[in-house]
Amino acid sequence: MSTATDAPLLELLTGFIRELRSAGLPVSLTENLDAMEAVTHIPIEDRQAFKYALGATLVKNHAHWRAFETVFEVYFSLRGREYDLVDGEWPDVDVDDGAEGRDGDGDRQGQGSGGGQGLSPEELAQMLYQALLNGDQALMRAMARQAVRRYAGMEPGRPVGGTYYLYRTLRNLDLDRVLEQLMNQVHLDAPEPLTPLEERLERDEFESRIEDLKKEVEAEIRRRLVADRGVEAMAKTLRKPLPEDVDFMHATREEMLALRRAIHPLTRKLAVRLARKRRHGRKGPLDFRSTVRHSLSYGGVPAEPKFRYPRPSKPEIMVVADISGSVAAFARFTLHLVHAISSQFSKVRSFVFIDGLDEVTSYFEGAEDISEAVHRVNTEADVVWVDGHSDYGHAFEVFWERYGRDVSPKTTVLILGDARNNYHAAQSWIVKEIEHRARHVYWLNPEPRSYWDTGDSIVSEYGIHCDGTFEVRNLRQLERFVETLV
Amino acid sequence: MTDRFDSVASVRAGLTGVDYLADDGIAGVVYLADRLDKPVLVEGPAGTGKTQLAKSVAEMAGARLIRLQCYEGLDESKALYEWNYKKQLLRIQAERNVDATWDEVEDDIFAEDFLLTRPLLEAIRSDEPVVLLIDEVDRVEVETEALLLEILSDYQVSIPELGTVEAVQIPLVFLTSNNTRELSEALKRRCLYLHIDYPDLEREKQIVLTKVPDVTDSLADQVARIVRSVRQLELKKSPSVSETLDWARTLVLLGVQHIDAETASDTVNILLKYRTDIEKALKEFSVNDDSFAAEGAGST
């Protein structure tokens, strides 16, 4: 990559911002100009300051920060001294004499980097262990590069994403085992047995170091991929959805965590917004009596029309959720959200099913911690009837038999699930009956619309009896649906 | 317009000088705010020093801090300016005997003498350097945000009767938000954005060392480590920096040198404010022992 003179930098920034926009970040023209101006005030060598200057001008929502970081790493990863990609050479960090050997292990996996004899896997593991034990940043970075070189098996031009290499590298390092070793070491070193508290603290410390190491590995892989394939192609491959766009059904563990964090502020925002909407709601129909009465003060001219206060009745909600494996995450989020804003409804009742059905409303009543209640739903609810494979037909039968008479014209019924019925009987007449009796019946499906009615999915068979079927794959869609519900 | 700060490093050093430990991001954004003459929108969890940042920058720059606390129902007359109605009335009555035309009277009573300045107007009219803090801007309604826009982008206030009041000097502006609602695009676009998160281990330790008198290095280290572990739990409300400091102060007062499980559980109510959170934390830190033993036996 060329040195940073003004023109290439401008070009690079333009590409960078284009990529941010493609990743879904709303970057306006003024913000673009601000960023351009901001970087002129920052010494270009200072990578951190450069990053924060761009961040402060371009990213106005903290949830988007991660996406920004990824793009930044891709675009500017080959800049800065310590980030030089030097093949066949150690980075200029002080490494113990044992590590003086040239890198690149020349075995069948390391064809991408030059030859030369390297550390044996045992030596590598040992040094990594030392680095983690002492929290030696420089050595950790060196080891991360070494590990990638050795284990990732990266080949130029191979159309594989970074995750594949990451997985290969981490599998070989076996960091879970290393963590246990480290803990054992701590136990040995301690003069007296560790208290649970100390134990916990040590563990957290090592876990955070290992987390750092993983990041280093990831960064190294990214650097190499960028060098191989060029900036734009890489940015495209690494593009990840923003938290509000993450698909419930395919979220990684990390994304799940981010989603769980996102849901709390979301419920708070929703509640505020809904309450406000209710308060400032539209005017009701003309109140004739009141208008005439007030007209007296204008000499009988109805100059000031009066309206009735609208009294939007709070709906009563029944949530019937499939919590079998494939859609469990989605059900969890929806239950969480609906209960978190339950003050907006006159009553919320929840039912969960797989092939049997159970009412779980009581778990949420008086529970201070909704996530706790959701957890109980997953572990305690009695939802398995025969084999624990989704059977919508039977679940609906149970629902109708036990709770059908509670469905009233005030009730809105939400059915959550992918309607993958494992070829059992559909019993769609029940949905029809419910629809007759209830105010509304909505079906929320976490699958993309194009998958509906493929395989054992029979969503339209149920859907024709519902007032609406919605694709709800991410928080954004869920939020939008809940808002229309109130 | 002269620049207040030389470089990012000098901002950082300056803030350290007034006992505010900034990280790269914070110092960088403050520096840019000065260079670009833009307001800074500061977001982040409660108790991470958002308001304190504005105060410290004011102290560092030797500027006066003008604060506007936002709340639902804040309006023009509380944020920008108001006509001193009683004084105007007096003036009219006093002039009743003098032969003055309508225009003269009107010019008279809508003069600067009769203007009551509120924080925003005051900030731009002041001759001395000023740091303007608009606190908890997410509490006002979206419509009220519009009040701020003119001052944030052009540093001026338009008063219909008087004309446009332009800034004598450009103040450093900080807006803080607890993110209870999405701020409008228009507001965000005019600001630099800074998210202040919980500090990392090392910085938190330094903060404890700076802010708590008589604390030993090892105690500060332990405090920071325990707080980090507590923050990893899924809690209703994670401990904030100010709670960390309170806890450290308590421990110093109690003469604790080494935090064991018992001291921790006795004083955890300073760190955590919800009963469920406290229970969770206690459970995590005591039961952990057994579960680990079982795990260890399984894997070795």
- For the report, how would you describe the main beta sheet of chain A? 6 strands, mixed
Structural class of chain A: alpha/beta
**Radius of gyration of chain A, rounded?**
29 Å
Our estimate of the beta-strand percent of chain A is: 5-15%
The rough form of chain B would be described as elongated
What does this structure look like?
The complex is a heterodimer of chains A (486) and B (300). Chain A is α/β, with parallel strands linked by helices. Chain A is 52% helix and 7% strand. Chain A has helices at residues 6-22, 29-40, 47-58, 65-76, 121-134, 137-152, 162-173, 175-189, 196-229, 231-238, 253-279, 288-295, 328-340, 361-364, 370-380, 392-403, 428-437, 459-463, 475-485, and strands at residues 316-322, 347-353, 357-359, 411-416, 440-445, 468-471. In chain A, helix 11 (253-279) packs parallel to helix 13 (328-340) and helix 16 packs parallel to helix 17 (428-437). Chain B is built from 14 helices and 9 strands. Chain B is elongated, with a radius of gyration of 25 Å. Chain B starts with 7 loop residues before the first helix and ends with a helix. Classes of the chains: A alpha/beta (486), B alpha/beta (300). Chains A and B meet through helix 2, helix 3, helix 8, helix 9 and helix 11 of A and helix 2, strand 1, helix 9, strand 9 and helix 11 of B.
